[in-house]
Amino acid sequence: MSLTVAANRVPIRQTDDGWETSVGGLTTALLPVLQEQGGLWVGMGEDPDLPDRQPYPADAPDFLVRRVPLSDEELDHYYYGMANRVLWPVSHYLIQHLELKEAFMETYRQVNRRFAEAILEETEGEGDDVIWIQDYHQMLSPRHIRTERPDATIGHFWHIPWPAMEVFRILPWSRELLRGMLGCDLIGFHVEEYVDNFIESAEVLLGANAETTPDGGVIRYDGHETRVEADPIGIDVARFQQMAADEEINEKARSFRERLGTEKVVLGIDRLDYTKGIHSRMVAFEKFLEDNPEYHGRVSFFQIATPSRSKLESYQQIRREVDEVVGRINGRFARESWVPVNYRYRTYSQYELCAFYRAADAALITPLRDGMNVVTQEFITANEDGVLILSELTGAAYLLPEAVQVNPYDRNGLARAIQTALEMPEDEKRERLSGLKATIEELDVHKWADGFLTSLRTGARMSKT
Ligand code: GDG
Fold it and tell me: What is the distance in A from the centroid of ligand 1 to the CA of 372?
């Protein structure tokens, strides 16, 4: 078998010491498959100085990196436009950020076609070769590939929520986008809710015929069958376990706690994105401090917001709002050496993140909507005795009943959950965490990739234990 992956970004990057593979769930899961079986990775080419075709590694290539070069305007309309100002907000039910511009969709069509052409040029589509497309950047390329190569095996994994049909249909191009996706043989989502929403969208908007099966469903449309199923993504569990056992990381965790100087540490780690609920979380922490003066001086909230999509006005706006609320809370409550909110707008290494996970007494992961949220899984794997406070509007919430679940829009409920977490008895904490850890071990990202590829190739899902 040879594997072709199409994702928005290629999995390698240039550093001062040469080229290296990037760190991230998807790369970690798919590189071993490409290294073993060979293949192709197609992604955007944002830098005209880089080659369109790059065998990697250069001295003994395992696979070919193929870039689809994009002009600045194409990048603006396809990536910052259609992907990030249309598909992202609509899928997260944050339609106040929606910008429905025909020019975005026009470029998205062209770029999806170019991705499909690059795949067709580089592959012959023989035997059990498979094409695996990732995420909402590529909804139309499956249909192009199918038209040119009716026998191709094409899979797609959708990493964000699929919204309710009534919300998805707001898009003037909803039917065209769905038809594009239905060029696939298999589409994976994190949880059943998204599978059901997708099936309903295909039935109502396209009049497709759909049947539900124990694994998800089968949609028949235009003479082709597409299977849909829930395949929740995991993390590289062994890597996080190893980091968690590393003495240097534990030393970092201890000195971090000492520097904060409080009895309790509450942690948040997110890309700075309006879907992640950082602002509402801060306001809830403020309410917690208002209601619980006995905690003043005893608890610190440490929030990392990693810069993301910062070219976009809506992301600049959320940054200003978070800056403002952090300033307000600290201005109101800080005293002597105690600063209640420690906020960092920057990127850390994965080792540093792991030290923060180890150090925390509670993680506050409260997106307004999130496909899965793998920060949750990283915290559970790395931490030993903390509490997970988790938004019920994430994919992860379906899988993790042992978390303290909250509605991220409910300020009072969230404030109470912080108190519950900080006062939870030790044995209850350990019991909940051990249930959570068992689930995360099952969700491992290598198993996820194997499971999806087996289902794609054989037409049947592996039985889940
Ligand atoms: C999409 C979906 C779905 C964050 N800051 C730093 C850093 N990170 C890493 C985390 C984690 C990842 O980024 C974020 O993953 P999430 O799952 O939280 O969210 P999205 O980026 O929105 O991802 C999401 C996911 O796809 C997978 O399908 O779960 O729902 O939206 O791994 O650790 N990593 C490093 N430095 C940082 O400062 N190195």
Answer: 10
CA dihedral sign, ordered 130, 372, 144, 82 = negative
Amino acid, single-letter form, for residue 229: E
Answer whether 411's CB lies under 8 Å from 290's CB: no
Residue ranges in the chain whose pLDDT is less than 50: 464-465
What is the per-residue pLDDT across 128-187, written as a single tens digit (0 to 9) for each? 789 999 999 999 999 999 999 999 999 999 999 999 999 999 999 999 999 999 999 999
Please state, in angstroms and rounded to a whole number, the distance separating the CA atoms of residues 259 and 262: 9
Q: How many helices (H) and strands (E) does the chain have?
A: 18, 18
**DSSP letters of 247-293?**
HHHHHHHHHHHHHH--SEEEEEEEES-GGG-HHHHHHHHHHHHHH-G
Q: Which of 190, 194, 274, 372 to probe ligand 1 with, by most ligand atoms within 8 A of CB?
A: 372
pLDDT tens by residue, 273-306: 999 999 999 999 999 999 999 999 999 999 999 9
Please report where in the chains the tokens 């990392």 appear, as a residue: 304
Q: Nearest to residue 154, comparing CAs of 196, 203, 114, 120?
A: 120
Find out whether 331 and 370 touch, Cβ atoms under 8 Å.
no
Q: How far is the CA of 447 from the centre of ligand 1 (A)?
A: 19
Six token digits for residue 447? 């198993």
Sign of CA dihedral 318, 352, 374, 12: positive
Radius of gyration of the chain (CA): 23
Contact status, residue 116 vs residue 145, Cβ threshold 8 Å:
yes
Q: How many residues does the chain have?
A: 465
pTM of this structure:
0.96
Confidence (pLDDT) at 130: 94
Spatial contact of 54 and 67, defined as CB atoms under 8 Å apart = yes
Alpha carbon nearest to ligand 1 atom 30, residue: 371
CA distance linking residue 35 with residue 57, whole number of Å:
10
Amino acid making up residue 189: F
Question: Can you spell out the DSSP letters for 3-41?
Answer: EEEE-SS-SEEEETTEEEEPPSHHHHHHHHHHHHH-EEE
Residue nearest to atom 23 of ligand 1 (CA): 373
Sign of the CA dihedral with 319 first, then 321, 324, and 326 last: negative
Query: In sequence order, which residues have a C-beta less than 8 Å from that of residue 212 and are 6 or more positions away?
Result: 199
Sign of the four-CA dihedral 356, 362, 365, 366: negative
Q: Atom of ligand 1 at shortest distance to CA of 394?
A: 30
Structure token pair of residue 24? 């991230």
Give the CB-side neighbour count of residue 306, counting CA atoms within 13 A. Answer: 10
CB atoms within 10 A of CB 450: 15
Q: Locate 374 and state its tokens.
A: 């793998």
Handedness of CA 64, 65, 70, 75 (dihedral sign): positive
